[in-house]
Amino acid sequence: MVRISGGSLTEQRRVRLIASDLDGTLFGPDHHVTARTAAAVQAAVSAGIHVVAATGRSTTSAIPRIAPVEVIETAVCSNGSLIHDLPSRATTDRFPIDPMMVDRLFASVSAIDQRFAFCWETDHGNGWDDAFDDIAFVHEDLGEERGLDRRPIVSDRTTKIMVRHPSIAQEELREFLVPLIADRLTVSTSGVQFVEITGVGVDKATAVAELCSRWGIERQDVVAFGDNHNDASLLSWAGHGIAMGNASAAARDAADDVIGTNADDAVAQWIEALLTTR
Questions:
Q1: Where are the beta strands (DSSP E) in the chain?
Q2: Beta strand pairing status for 12-14 and 82-85?
Q3: Core-most of 158, 178, 196, 231, by most CB within 10 Å?
Q4: How confident is the model at residue 5 (pLDDT cuts 50, 70, 90)?
Q5: Other Cβ atoms within 10 Å of 71 Cβ, number
Q6: What's the CA gap between 198 and 254, in Å, rounded?
Q7: Residue 186 to residue 197: CA distance in whole angstroms
Q8: What is the pLDDT of residues 102-152, one digit of tens each?
Q9: How far is CA 207 from CA 101, 104, 110, 170, 259, in A?
Q10: φ and ψ at 203, to 5 degrees?
């Protein structure tokens, strides 16, 4: 079993699973996996370690970008709302928002300020308000055409809702919205101008925990990497949470350690060091 020293460099940790965010973490600044990182991940899997991608991206954009690594077989997408199996090309699990909560969210936020705009991911396609057009038409997750020209309905399984405002963005927008949402939905940010909303208690940590339960892996044997607010729960939950040098304050505060940046292949460097301790 692979072991690595903990933050104190004295405590020996067993590593059975690595869960890594993609953008700003496993990916370089160009949002692709470098050859060095791909080789490090392949070596980790060869050593018997599960490597799971954990991203805010939907399967539409996440899967093509991690496919070149070849050995990542499981992806947690849409901030924990989806689990995708790469070998079978199937989304095996969906953790949608309760339909009644979806309705209440749209109604309550719109009543506060008509300038709020929404985008939504469902199992019947994606849709967005006209005020989201400038993002949607260049966003890999959404494509150039609306899959839905209506708001989600009860029969849809809505996995993520994005909310934007013309003058409030990122963490300020999250802090503004959280007290105003009636239900205890999960509201996170990932460095973009809108916030991302998933179901009650649904985040990257809960999805990775579900995988660990199925695979018989204890949380203390999990190492997680991330760089943003939507990684904080995972970094806090994992046995060893590691924030990138380019991470937000929320990610740094949740982590046990901070390493180099994604521009320096810091995740690859960490894995390489891990494997030398075998």
A1: 3-5, 12-14, 17-20, 50-54, 74-77, 82-85, 90-94, 117-122, 125-128, 158-164, 185-188, 195-200, 222-226, 240-243, 257-258
A2: unpaired
A3: 231
A4: very low
A5: 14
A6: 20
A7: 6
A8: 999 999 999 999 999 999 999 988 899 999 988 887 777 765 556 777 899
A9: 20, 25, 30, 23, 24
A10: -155, -175
Q: Which residue has the tokens 């901030």?
A: 79
**167-192 pLDDT tens trace:** 999 899 999 999 999 999 999 999 88
- Spell out the alpha helix ranges (H) of the chain: 35-46, 59-66, 99-112, 133-136, 170-177, 204-215, 232-237, 249-254, 266-275
Rounded to whole angstroms, the Cα distance separating 266 from 244 reads 8
How many C-beta atoms lie closer than 10 Å to residue 114's C-beta?
A: 8
Q: Does position 91 have pLDDT exceeding 60, yes or no?
A: yes
Among the listed residues 224, 209, 241, 256, the one whose alpha carbon sits nearest the alpha carbon of residue 51 = 224
Round to the nearest angstrom and report the end-to-end CA distance of the chain.
8
Helix (H, G, I), strand (E, B) or coil at 202: coil
Sign for the CA dihedral angle at 223, 228, 233, 236 comes to: positive
Residue count (the chain) = 278
Give the residue carrying structure tokens 């104190």: 8
